[in-house]
Write a structure and sequence with these properties.
single chain, alpha/beta, five-stranded mixed sheet, 16 helices, about 15% strand, globular
Length: about 325
């Protein structure tokens, strides 16, 4: 895995184990001593990349930060997940920033307060179809599980930056995620843009039939975040220390994963019976759990992605991306 020095990764939080145990003191005094704040946290337990959520729950990071967190498994669309937070059905959620930007631009009252890691989507080429590098995609068809999926949007941007017109040079076709490999076998598509573990398991079954063309950590994206933490706008406005405690818990759990991947895999394995602990360890190596920016760094990354999405028409041309990032991100950790 990519590792930074402990000093760099923890400089703003002091995330030694001792600090983690003392973390509730960082909340406002009445909360720290009068009991834990109860929150409902929405997530998708099928997403192995969200292992920090269950690590925070099962190893007590939420509790150490003064929180009593109920996890709400949300397998619906990201718009529905964000709506659940905006309307108070959940207090917070975690998910891919690529899928959040448009709903947030549309006015969902959800504020980004933290991040967990980078990674999550990949683009595979089918060798037998002659797709072994990005330029081979010209004139080809790429399969996606959703035409509004993060992978579709991200690789549309990446291809454009590499001189490939994502509209004229590429055909995008939607299939259920578990049928993407079959679509390749039938010759209907020659590449797949999706996430793991779906692509990992496909590669494992087909024994070298695919080659990775790019990921959302390729090139200039190598040190960009992917999964972010958002909370109800009302919560962050009225109880900023609680929002800070939640963001801090996820960062602490992400740091734990970086240093203790084997234990993290054991914890998450029961949520994902189709993936072994060994498979989880390999998948963790594709993510950057050392990269969870805050403050100006996260705000700048939000603006960066907003500019990207503006370039493909997902974000409105009139949107001031700097002001947008300042509006949707609240620095709760200081």
């Amino acid at each position: 895995m990519h590792k930074l020095s402990q000093i760099n990764r923890r400089k703003f939080l002091g995330l030694t184990l001792g600090t983690a145990l003392a973390a509730p003191v960082l909340l406002h005094n009445s909360q720290a001593w009068s009991g834990q704040k109860k929150l409902t946290f929405a997530w998708n337990q099928n997403a192995f990349c969200l292992t920090p959520v269950v690590v925070a729950k099962e190893l007590g990071y939420f509790e150490k930060n003064g929180l009593d967190v109920d996890l709400l498994n949300y397998s619906g669309s990201t718009d529905q997940l964000l709506e659940s937070v905006a309307t108070g059905k959940a207090d917070a959620a975690i998910g891919m920033i690529h899928r959040w930007l448009k709903p947030l631009e549309a006015g969902f009252d959800v504020k980004i307060v933290g991040s967990s890691h980078g990674g999550c989507v990949r683009l595979l080429g089918h060798k037998a179809s002659g797709v072994t590098q990005l330029n081979d995609l010209k004139g080809k068809t790429v399969g996606v599980s959703d035409l509004a999926a993060p992978g579709k949007h991200f690789f549309t941007i990446l291809l454009a930056k590499n001189g490939i017109d994502p509209d004229k040079d590429i055909t995008w076709r939607q299939y259920p995620a578990d049928l993407l490999g079959i679509a390749v076998d039938k010759g209907e598509i020659q590449a797949i843009a999706d996430g793991d573990p779906n692509l990992y398991l496909l590669e494992k079954r087909t024994n070298g039939a695919y080659v990775e063309l790019a990921t959302n950590l390729s090139g200039e994206y190598a040190r960009k975040t992917c999964c972010v933490v958002g909370v109800r706008g009302e919560l962050v406005r009225n109880d900023k220390p609680t929002a800070a405690a939640l963001a801090r818990s996820i960062v602490q759990a992400s740091d734990f994963m970086l240093e203790n991947p084997n234990q993290a895999a054991r914890i998450f394995a029961k949520y994902s019976p189709k993936i072994t602990e060994d498979d989880l360890l390999k998948l963790y190596n594709t993510l950057t759990f050392d990269h969870h920016p805050t403050n100006v760094d996260l705000r700048d990354e939000i603006a960066f992605f907003a500019e990207d999405f503006k370039s493909i028409g997902v974000i409105k041309p009139s949107t001031d991306t700097k002001r947008f990032s300042q509006h949707v991100y609240v620095d709760v950790l200081g």
